[in-house]
Amino acid sequence: MNKKLGLTALGASLALTLAACGGEGAGSNTNTADADPSDLSIGVSMPTETSERWIADGENVESQLEEAGYTVDLQFAGDDIPTQAQQIDQMIVEGADALIVAAIDGTALSSQLQAAADQGIPVISYDRLIRETENVDFYVSFDNFRVGEAQGTALLTGLGVTDEEGNPTGVTGPFNIELFAGSLDDNNAGFFFDGAMSVIQPYIDNGTLVVKSGQTSIEQAATLRWSQETAQRRMEDLLTSSYNDGSVVNGVLSPYDGISRGIITALQNAGYGPTQDAQPRPMPAITGQDAEIASVKLIADGVQDSTIFKDTRLLAEQAVAAATAYLEEEEPEANDTETYDNGVKVVPAYLLPVETVYQDDIESVLIESEYYTAEEVAAGQSD
Ligand code: BGC
């Protein structure tokens, strides 16, 4: 349940307003509870437009905030850290009453967030935890460790080593696998990798799975900025260095659909596939995340094995609920107050569940929920 702030806190925020008004005059962001929503502006900072999930996130947050009557300033930062910092500075100068931020680099926004705190502007960390600052009020995301576990289980299922619930089938391989991780400056990357390894490691230990390159640490597996091209190059290098003896790759742990597409391109260029049924070198079992439309088509076509669906419509709802709570001088509802230590404090969080999507689940999970239409899946493009 939401809790009203006590009178003391209200008094303190009133004092802050007065202090802020005595200064630059920007961001008169307290007493927002009495304001008409249309007089309140919310800055929404998203990392990049190169991945469709962030475009969908931005648009969902924007439209839901607008439906609630707020004015919205939505910016994408082109995966460039200084651009994101500058956009947030600008939002504060222009008087934002709340900020919703999906950071490129989780540690790079400290001075902006200090400025926000100085003006009493609540900050909601969106999907990626902002680290090393006390000036982040709330975190909305998915259960990120669980995403990794689901990816690990999907890899094992794709290889036939377990069923979809993770129960061993008795198949013991050995299978050659390679491991990819996300961008190390994104707090989620570690959760995904650790979650996946918690499921996979026992099968490496008992010899069912062999990481032929030997590259098993997150530092070795990482992909700066989650870049598709960087992943493609690393997969090409792995094929050259570790599979030039006639051996084949049977599975690849990939943390994100864009990375999976880079891996697939490298493998297809090396004579794998095009599908998982093709001979003489079937496409390996490759995991993913985000159910990006291009990758859902690859799954429908039997090229990629799985993805993890995160319903960004629900995440946007949680972000909007949290922003609304703060603007009404209430506390947002958290369902996790332990997991997300940002290095300075444990940030209260609302975490959403995730779902694994294999070929057979596209209809029931993605089309029936109206995330995509059947036509979009067939085309590999969303409207
Ligand atoms: C998100 C993932 C996404 C990745 C790359 C992560 O922070 O949680 O959903 O795949 O960034 O954009």
Q: What do these coordinates show?
A:
Residues 1-28 have low confidence and may be disordered. Strand 6, helix 6 (187-205) and strand 7 (209-211) form a beta-alpha-beta unit. The strands form three sheets. Strands 2-1-3-4-5-11 form a six-stranded parallel β-sheet, with helices on both faces. Strands 7-6-8-9 form a four-stranded parallel β-sheet, with helices on both faces. The chain has a two-stranded antiparallel sheet with strand order 10-12. The longest helix is centred in the middle third of the chain and has 19 residues, at 187-205. The chain has helices spanning 7-22, 52-67, 81-93, 110-118, 144-159, 187-205, 218-221, 228-242, 257-269, 293-300, 312-327, 362-367, 374-379; strands at 41-46, 71-76, 98-101, 123-126, 138-142, 175-179, 209-211, 251-253, 285-286, 306-309, 349-352, 355-358. The radius of gyration is 22 Å and the shape is elongated. The relative contact order is 0.13. The protein is α/β, with parallel strands linked by helices. The protein is built from 13 helices and twelve strands. Bound molecules: beta-D-glucopyranose. Beta-D-glucopyranose binds next to loops.
Offer a concise description of the structure.
It is built from 13 helices and twelve strands.
Which descriptors would you attach to this protein?
single chain; 383 residues; alpha/beta; six-stranded parallel β-sheet; four-stranded parallel β-sheet; elongated; binds beta-D-glucopyranose
